[in-house]
């Protein structure tokens, strides 16, 4: 089991303003994280973690937690699952820029991120194996209030409310890879990959509706074959000179 405490002082964030020569004064923040892992040598193992972070600005708070499980069915077949969730409330971040006035808008927002993955591993022998992995990632952002970034890097509240800037993003990937190590340092890999993603402004959409829309949306599939062959230069050189002389 691991426990950690962390602290970051107030500083200058030259990236978040998204404009050259402008800066955002990032708030003071502190938090902790804890992680537990069981013995992975056992047939069933797993672990869990939790982390929290508190920010002075807007009384922002975030918590992240997750679990993983490993199931070793036998010496050839293994199943691994991974789950994580990261809800963040009252966070500050860039949202848009007024092209006419040059005003840089930030928002106070809530963000929620969920990630799930399932992996199946099958080993035929010490030279050959098959790996199948599926992963779904979902993140949504809900704006609550808007601010203008001033020249000192602080945020001034504005009565304007910019509609249509919520964010809802999904990504779903399936990767299947077969690997054959046919010689030392050399291998043949055959891969099939399927990927789909979805982005819209409907930040009120629920998890399972997002998942269903993503897997039934447009798919990007590709198939590849790759061969890596290791050549020992010194061995080839010795063989060449022995034949020559």
Distance between the termini: 64 Å
pLDDT averaged over residues: 92
N to C succession of SSEs: EEEEEEEEEEEEHEH
Count of spatially separate domains: 1
Main beta sheet: 11 strands, antiparallel
Structural class: mainly beta
Question: What portion of residues is helical?
Answer: under 10%
Low-confidence runs = none
Instruction: Label the overall shape.
Output: elongated
How much of the sequence is in beta strands?
Answer: over 45%
Number of helices: 2
How many strand elements? 13
Gyration radius, to the nearest Å? 25 Å
Structure description:
The structure is a single chain. By secondary structure, the chain is mainly β. It has one domain (55-244). 9% of the residues lie in helices and 63% in strands. It has two helices and 13 strands; from the N terminus they run E-E-E-E-E-E-E-E-E-E-E-E-H-E-H. Strands 1, 4, 5, 6, 7, 8, 9, 10, 11, 12 and 13 form an eleven-stranded antiparallel sheet that branches. Strands 2-3 form a two-stranded antiparallel ribbon. The N and C termini lie far apart (64 Å).
Topology:
Blueprint: E1 2-8, E2 11-13, E3 24-26, E4 29-37, E5 44-55, E6 61-72, E7 77-97, E8 104-125, E9 128-149, E10 155-157, E11 167-183, E12 186-200, H1 207-215, E13 220-228, H2 233-244
Antiparallel strand pairs: 1-4, 2-3, 4-5, 5-6, 6-7, 7-8, 8-9, 9-10, 9-11, 11-12, 12-13
Record keyword descriptors for this entry.
13 strands, elongated, 245 residues, eleven-stranded antiparallel β-sheet
